[in-house]
Amino acid sequence: MDKLVINGGRPLSGELAVSGMKNAAVAVVLATVLVEDKCVLENLPDISDINIALDILSAMGARVTRLSRDTVEIDTTFVKVGTAPQELVRRMRASYYLVGSELGRFGRSLVAAPGGCDFGVRPIDLHIKGFEALGATVNVDGGFIEATAPEDGLVGSSVYLDLVSVGATINTMLAAVRAKGLTVIENAAHEPHIVDTANFLNACGADIKGAGTDVIKIRGVERLHGVTYTIIPDMIEAGTFMVLAAATKSRLKISGIIPKHVDSISAKLTEMGAKITEEDEAVIVEYQGPLKRINIKTLPYPGFPTDMNPQMCVLLCLAEGTSIISEGVWDNRFRYTEELRRMGASIKVDGRVAVVDGTGELVAARVRALDLRAGAAMVVAGLAAPGRTEIEDIYHIQRGYENLVEKLQGVGADIRLVTTQDQA
Ligand code: EPZ
């Protein structure tokens, strides 16, 4: 298997360009099933999750043409329902967006249930509640999700999502865009990738209002038409690079972003003593001296993102003093702390709370990436710790970070990808 070999402990400098947002791209790619036409998607990140989503559509009969490094044309006119290959679907957690898209277009869906997540079971009860509110019957058994609309199609309705859920909000929206009448989603999630998916669908002729607020109203339309659409930049990739600047005592410019999307991350880094300068489409993060301990609570957007939990924990280890991270979204998101302890971290975890005794430093070690964001956090830790850090199981990282090694080498990081047959 491949691994990353890092020689850390030195400041970096320069500019990091951010790619398209994984969690917007995966929803928009699978939403093209609703369109029955040609769509051109720009700023698609070249990462394994997106390439698997494109492979799934091809296997279903879509014509997928790569027009350039980050631009793909997808023609879903001849897509066949229920034909997503199980082995691909199970490799990409967000494949469940196919249920909303197939249901919205064909009035039925059959998709393999998503695999378990690295940090706990991935329930879809709220997705099902959304589909059932529109009149669908949904069965989950034998590892498959099967959904069927009534004879005369889905009918718009109101649905209250008991928990703020990105996936359930998007999936209900997908099923509703071609349903008869008005659908109202209450207690909807606000994430930028929900707004991006709604903007894509509206560009295709859908009628969605209120995305990004608690209440999203969708008035069903007969059909959607093809469009050329540009995916928003990845706020979590941006946040990861912002943390990297502070962790390596560097000054880095993170460009091609929407600064508002990283407001909560800028605020916490400022609280720790880093200097943040905002430009129209970039932020500059500058280390200014020893990092101060702080407390963090991860929450749905616009709160501090749960997907920044592991990266921020690395920074708290590098601060002096005791900090607390409360995880407000997932039940079991602290497994990565096992790997940080191998680098000298002192962290006590109790359920959804981690108490970090920051010592101001980390020690190079051999560690593993346990999931996507945990892996990114280990890269930050390895670049901060003096000496040689090796990170295994890096396929997790490749799911969500495009050209990470090249980007980091571009700002002076001593990091390389080593395959097992090389002498590392
Ligand atoms: C999305 O997952 C992201 N993935 C996750 O990012 C992210 O951590 C999460 O949103 C929260 O921001 C994608 O967008 C592909 P949720 P999602 O539904 O939609 C519970 C990454 O690293 N819940 O908002 O699955 C659930 O257990 C990934 O890019 C139910 O109980 O998350 C969790 O505790 C990791 N029933 C909470 O809600 C449901 O039907 C929020 O989950 C759905 C969710």
Describe this structure in words.
The chain is α+β, with helices and mostly antiparallel strands. The chain folds into 2 domains: 3-19 and 233-418, UDP-n-acetylglucosamine1-carboxyvinyl-transferase, Chain; 22-230, UDP-n-acetylglucosamine1-carboxyvinyl-transferase, Chain. 30% of the residues lie in helices and 27% in strands. The longest helix has 13 residues, at 235-247. The radius of gyration is 21 Å and the shape is globular. The mean pLDDT is 96. The structure holds ligand EPZ.
Shape: globular
What are the bound molecules?
Answer: ligand EPZ
**What's the end-to-end separation, in Å?**
12 Å
Average predicted confidence as pLDDT: 96
Poorly predicted runs: none
Radius of gyration computed on alpha carbons: 21 Å
CATH class of the largest domain: Alpha Beta
Largest sheet: 4 strands, mixed
Proportion of residues in extended strands = 25-35%
